[in-house]
């Protein structure tokens, strides 16, 4: 028997098949084979047709069943991960009324900023733990103001994962963690944020019913079965946004544990049970996948725009063959890169730097002693320092920092990168070879809050290796302090 997991991204839909008994990954496929497109009618707008997601889910489901020569009757559960903060609107028949306004669309930024100013920081932070910002609630307010004819037809608003669950089951519901991703959950009153909806003029009846994670959220209906190829009655047992799901995929369920991602941009997602924060702009807070009224586990999410994109830029512009060669050359250079310092922030404004755009800089370059290898090392150190800087922000905001778990991506495969972070925060880094779709499939096997088997699945199947803090930290600390000096110089010079 198997479970099936879906990861609804903005570039593709990934589908994973997992063995029920062992938790072993059987297969992962991607639809389409290249990338989905985005619709951008105006600058800073980004939309996608939610029915395109569903079509890809159906195609991928049939393909993975056929490829692995199994019967749909052998699939006993569904898990769904999805791109966060998107807005999907459906009518009384469950049909989408317009394209989804997805996570990277920024049209609602002024709406959220105005709400934050008028409602007040104290109220927003004590109840929402966030500014309304550019999240789902603010996007819905944009529809109210600009497309009133659409708003009048709405039966329910929802997140992207809720829509996929609807297409499978014919049922409309969401989760607490889903509402929190839209900044629609009141952590103080433990209920949907009705007062924010009143402020925005959102009819509270449009909020979906709340269902629990790790319990049956709906079952595949006749129409969902005909279109997807799954059997009628197959239960949906889990759904979550991509970053909380990434944490779940890495067995991050308890305060003090951290999930980190080192892709084009970086993400640090740290768990806490403290529902207070003094960081309305630099850190976002979401109900974690195992959040409950009795056990209020939150995810503190911090983004680093300038991360792997720097190393990719260097590969493309220095004639390097591949990342492996770059890492090997960098390892020949001493810690601190012979005083060479790189600020990696060349991918737009950085939220953790109070939305300042300090740019990327190479500092202390000496033509007589520095070469490509030194630049590679300084770049890896610079990105690692940015992660440490972000983790320090989380610590100051009341977050306990313990073990870091990360996927086996380009940055965390680098000894320089991982050793630098591990040593400076004095914590172990565990590397796992897993994906969001696999995590969602495994989550469909969790019964209630019994996470023991999930941990065993991960340890037995996906653990790649560990990085332990170095005993001698002197050179690492000196290099980090020199980097911070350069960063602070640039922060004072940037408006």
Summarize the structure.
This protein is α+β, with helices and mostly antiparallel strands.
How would you describe the overall organization of this protein?
There is one protein chain. This protein has 495 residues and is α+β, with helices and mostly antiparallel strands. Helices cover 37% and strands 21% of the residues. The protein has 17 helices and 23 strands. The chain has helices at 50-67, 109-119, 121-127, 136-146, 148-151, 160-169, 176-181, 194-200, 222-228, 242-249, 308-318, 323-330, 372-396, 415-425, 436-443, 452-461, 474-493; strands at residues 2-8, 13-19, 25-31, 47-48, 75-82, 88-90, 100-101, 156-158, 173-174, 185-186, 191-192, 209-210, 218-219, 235-241, 258-262, 266-272, 284-287, 298-304, 341-345, 359-363, 404-407, 429-432, 463-467. Helix 11 (308-318) runs antiparallel to helix 13 (372-396), helix 12 crosses helix 13 and helix 13 runs parallel beside helix 14. The longest helix has 25 residues, at 372-396.
Enumerate the spans where pLDDT stays under 50 for 5 or more consecutive residues.
none
The CATH topology of the largest domain comes to: Nucleotidyltransferase, domain 5
Euclidean distance between termini CA atoms: 58 Å
- Helix percentage range: 25-40%
- Our count of domains comes out at 2
């Amino acid at each position: 028997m198997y479970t099936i997991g879906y990861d609804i991204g903005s570039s593709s839909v990934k589908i994973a098949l997992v063995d029920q008994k062992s938790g072993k990954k059987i297969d992962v496929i991607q639809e389409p084979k290249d990338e989905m497109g985005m619709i951008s009618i105006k600058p800073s707008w980004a939309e996608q047709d939610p029915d395109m997601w569903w079509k890809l889910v159906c195609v991928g489901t049939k393909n993975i069943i056929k490829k692995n020569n199994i019967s749909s009757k052998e699939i006993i559960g569904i898990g769904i991960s999805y791109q966060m903060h998107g807005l999907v609107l459906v009518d009384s028949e469950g049909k989408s009324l317009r394209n989804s306004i997805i996570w990277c669309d920024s049209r609602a930024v002024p709406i959220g900023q105005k709400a934050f100013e008028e409602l007040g920081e104290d109220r927003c932070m004590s109840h929402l733990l966030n500014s309304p910002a550019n999240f789902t609630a603010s996007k819905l307010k944009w529809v109210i103001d600009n497309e009133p004819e659409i708003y009048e037809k709405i039966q329910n608003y929802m997140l992207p994962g809720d829509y996929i669950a609807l297409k499978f089951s014919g049922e409309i519901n969401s989760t607490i963690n889903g509402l929190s991703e839209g900044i629609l959950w009141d952590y103080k009153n433990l209920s949907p944020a009705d007062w924010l909806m009143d402020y925005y003029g959102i009819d509270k009846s449009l909020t979906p019913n709340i269902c629990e994670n790790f319990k049956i959220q709906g079952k595949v209906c006749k129409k969902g079965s005909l279109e997807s190829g799954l059997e009628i009655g197959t239960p949906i047992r889990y759904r979550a946004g991509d970053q909380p799901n990434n944490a779940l995929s890495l067995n991050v369920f308890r305060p003090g544990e951290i999930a980190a991602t080192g892709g084009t941009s970086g993400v640090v997602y740290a768990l806490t049970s403290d529902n207070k924060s003094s960081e309305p702009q630099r850190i976002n807070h979401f109900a974690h996948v195992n959040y409950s009224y009795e056990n209020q586990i939150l995810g503190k999410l911090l983004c680093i725009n300038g991360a792997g994109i720097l190393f990719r830029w260097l590969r493309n512009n220095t004639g390097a063959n591949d990342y492996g060669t770059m890492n090997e050359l960098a390892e020949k250079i001493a810690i601190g890169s012979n005083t060479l310092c790189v600020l990696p922030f060349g991918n737009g404004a950085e939220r953790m730097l109070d939305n300042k755009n300090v740019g990327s800089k190479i500092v202390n370059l000496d033509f007589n002693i520095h070469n490509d290898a030194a630049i590679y090392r300084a770049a890896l150190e610079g990105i690692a320092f940015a992660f440490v800087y972000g983790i320090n922000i989380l610590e100051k905001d009341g977050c306990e920092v313990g073990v870091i778990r990360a996927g086996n991506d380009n940055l965390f495969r680098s000894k320089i990168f991982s050793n630098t972070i591990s040593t400076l925060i004095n914590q172990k880094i565990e590397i796992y070879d897993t994906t969001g779709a696999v995590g969602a499939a495994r989550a469909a096997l969790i019964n209630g809050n019994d996470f023991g088997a999930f941990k065993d699945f991960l340890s037995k199947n996906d653990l790649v290796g560990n990085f332990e803090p170095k005993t001698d930290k002197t050179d690492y600390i000196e290099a980090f302090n020199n980097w911070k000096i350069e960063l602070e110089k640039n922060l004072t010079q940037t408006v």
